[in-house]
Design a protein that fits this description.
Helix content: over 70%
Distance between the termini: 52 Å
Largest sheet: none
Strand content: under 5%
Number of domains: 2
CATH topology of the largest domain: Growth Hormone, Chain: A
Shape: globular
Number of helices: 15
CATH architecture of the largest domain: Up-down Bundle
Low-confidence stretches: none
Length: 354
């Protein structure tokens, strides 16, 4: 039952998140679309700040409330959506969804994540790991071929030709790898090393996401002045500096160790994430807003899966206590992914003025 509930929640999130951004882009006038993307990201950052705290508080009361609290929120959202959202226009390909393509993508990412997670215990040269990674490559190649031939594919390859879309999406994937590894490493450090409760861990992580809303909205003038690529690169640099701070001072405690790095990573996320999403979708034609936002969201989720799997592989998934050296290796991985995202930001062209 729990597994079925998780699948339903994942399916609902997969339908809701890209659709919400697509509706927002379609409703906003051209000159306000970047601001709309930044507002959407700011709300996401605020939710990320409040979620761990509220989740920890509900866990302290009763773990069942973590699931039950979503029921009235979901019901209210459904009622509001029925009253306020415009109806979707009829689409000739609505009944030809690429279910096989979705299955191929899911299987390919699952095989990749399995190979990365098990690499630490089985070894990169073991037949099991080599077979898993090779299988992932083959399945993902089949997914691309399927997308090229299907009339309504999961990944419309045509949107990749839009200016700035491909480099911004790739940078989005790499930054999602870094962000997921960063966030999980902080949670594991608080609970495994400092042995903090879920509520205290959530409170410790909150200052970082709280930096995102103000920077997401305030970064728009800077993006117009210097361009999306340079601004995202600056954000990646600040983010990497926060992670590097942990490698240097995390053992000094929360006030001198975790908190400064959490604030720096929050600034980096606030500058980078909305800028990359905005750069990816701003150049798309209105008819591709929903599709493009879905691809951007999918890219973030793929990066999140890979980031979590890579961190677990570096830290080790066994019962042995994790050492500071293990976390240093995980943060070094995080910095490497951030540097990769920063390098790709150099290839994001500056948006043309209307």
């Amino acid at each position: 039952m729990a597994g079925g509930g998780g699948v339903l929640q994942a399916a609902g999130a997969a339908a809701l998140i890209p659709s919400s951004l697509g509706l927002l882009l379609a409703a906003a006038p051209p000159e306000r679309r970047m601001a709309a993307v930044r507002g959407w990201t700011a709300i996401s950052g605020l939710a990320a700040a409040l979620g761990p705290v509220l989740g920890g508080l509900l866990t302290e009361l009763d773990w069942r409330w973590v699931f039950l609290v979503n029921v009235p929120i979901g019901a209210a959202a459904i009622l509001a959506g029925l009253r306020m959202l415009p109806g979707a226009p009829a689409r000739p390909d609505a009944r030809r969804r690429d279910l096989l393509g979705a299955a191929l993508l899911t299987a390919g990412i699952a095989a990749l994540a399995f190979g990365v997670v098990r690499s630490e215990s089985d070894g990169w040269t073991s037949p099991q790991i080599l077979g898993s990674l090779a299988g992932a490559a083959v399945v993902l190649a089949l997914f691309v071929l399927r997308s090229a031939r299907h009339p309504a594919p999961v990944l419309p390859l045509g949107v990749l030709r839009a200016p700035a879309f491909s480099p911004a999406s790739l940078a989005n994937v790499l930054f999602a790898v870094a962000f997921a590894a960063m966030l999980l490493s902080c949670v594991l450090w608080c609970q495994d090393v400092w042995e903090w409760s879920a509520l205290r861990t959530g409170l410790a992580i909150t200052p970082g996401p709280l930096m995102v809303p103000a920077l997401a909205m305030g970064g728009a003038p800077l993006a117009r002045k210097i361009g999306s690529g340079p601004l995202a690169l600056i954000g990646c640099a600040v983010f990497a500096a926060g992670v590097a701070w942990w490698m240097w001072r995390m053992a000094d405690g929360y006030a001198l160790g975790m908190l400064p790095g959490m604030l720096l990573t929050g600034v980096g996320v606030g500058l980078t994430l909305p800028t990359l999403i905005g750069a990816a979708v701003a150049a798309l034609p209105p008819t591709s807003f929903s599709t493009g936002s879905a691809v951007v969201t999918m890219a973030r989720q793929v990066g999140t899966v890979v980031g979590v799997a890579a961190l677990i592989a570096v830290l080790g998934g066994g019962e042995a206590a994790r050492t500071a050296a293990d976390f240093d290796a995980g943060w070094l991985l995080t910095i490497a992914a951030t540097v990769g995202a920063a390098a790709v930001c150099l290839f994001i062209p500056r948006a043309r003025k209307a």
